[in-house]
Specification:
Blueprint (H helix, E strand, L loop, with lengths): L6 E4 L17 H11 L8 E3 L5 H7 L2 H8 L5 H4 L8 H24 L1 E4 L20 H11 L6 E5 L6 H7 L5 E8 L12 E5 L5 H13 L7 E5 L17 H14 L5 E4 L8 H19 L1
Parallel strand pairs: 1-2, 1-3, 3-8, 4-5, 4-7, 5-6, 7-8
Length: 300
């Protein structure tokens, strides 16, 4: 299908207040949307405000006490602390929008072949708690919804963020109708990894060549008949990333994305952008934009 028929969802219309000096780069989402439009990668009429996720969808992946504790602001400070973001009405709305945006992207991908959220990839959230800047687990919410509604039978998750998706694994890791590949830093957050279906833990200072070799090898080991790919396209693999342990370049990340988009074998792909915390943040935005550029080159 032609690129102009693909839909993309954003959440940056909801501004979340953060204290001065906070490490989370909330501004990158608006910067990314501006850049993909300015560079002509995505046309403005392809961009849509993310809808709010339904509670019934959240509750397939998350415990009722956690979801309603967040909604009603009854969770304790201790329970909220692992998220790393201060509770606010804006954070709650943004989290509902982010999960809803990925659900919308999966539906759109099934119709057209490709769709993406210009946010998300919140793979550290568990059934009973948030963690690591992740409030709800968008991949788990969307995956369980598609399977329960019989829209697909089997889902392949390619999680290429530098941090292992421990939340994905804790919620989905034992399922036989979902297969999770995680390629991540061996000595990096989360320090307690929860096994995925296939984990590839790479050492500190992994470079482009070694990463691409590991990616190709891992993909060759997957023998799983899937209906859709969920791609977590984190760019915190960059050498300049302040929360990463790898030494990938922008060119290395482009090659990674080229391999993933070529691997799909004409099956639908729903993508979320995942992490990116480079200094300066413009490098992260450029890396995220390159992922959309490569998607357009391969899939458009």
């Amino acid at each position: 299908m032609a690129w102009e028929n693909y839909s993309f969802y954003y959440t940056d219309h909801i501004e979340v207040p953060l204290p001065p000096g906070h490490r989370f780069p909330m501004m990158k989402y608006r910067m990314l949307r501006d850049k993909v439009m300015a560079d002509g990668i995505i046309h403005p009429n392809q961009l849509h405000e993310s809808p709010m996720v339904l509670d019934e969808d959240l509750l397939r992946a998350h415990e009722k006490a956690y979801v309603y504790g967040l909604k009603n602001k009854t969770l304790s400070e201790k329970e909220l602390r692992p998220i790393g973001l201060t509770w606010s009405p804006e954070l709650l709305n943004r989290s509902y929008s982010s999960a809803g945006g990925f659900v919308a992207a999966t539906e759109s991908a099934l119709r057209t072949g490709f769709s993406a959220l210009l946010a998300g990839g919140t793979h550290h959230a568990h059934a009973d708690r948030g963690e690591g800047y992740c409030v709800f687990n968008d991949f788990a919410v969307a995956a369980l919804r598609l399977i329960e509604l019989k829209k697909v039978k089997r889902i392949l998750i390619l999680d290429l963020d530098v941090h292992q998706g421990n939340g994905n694994s804790s919620i989905l890791g034992k399922r036989e109708d979902i297969f999770i590949l995680s390629i991540h830093g061996e000595k990096n957050y989360p320090f307690r990894k929860i096994p995925s279906h296939l984990d590839v833990a790479l050492p500190e200072k992994t470079n482009d060549e070694d990463y691409i070799k590991a990616l190709n090898k891992a993909l060759s080991m997957i023998h799983f008949d899937y209906d859709i790919i969920f791609y977590q396209a984190g760019v915190d693999n960059l050498k300049e990333d302040t929360l990463g342990t790898f030494e990938l370049t922008l060119e290395g990340l482009k090659e990674r994305d080229k391999i993933v988009f070529s691997y799909s074998n004409n099956k639908p792909i729903a993508m979320a952008i995942g992490g990116g915390y480079a200094s300066p943040i413009n490098l992260t935005v450029e890396a995220h934009a390159n992922t959309f550029k490569m998607a357009k080159f391969i899939l458009g």
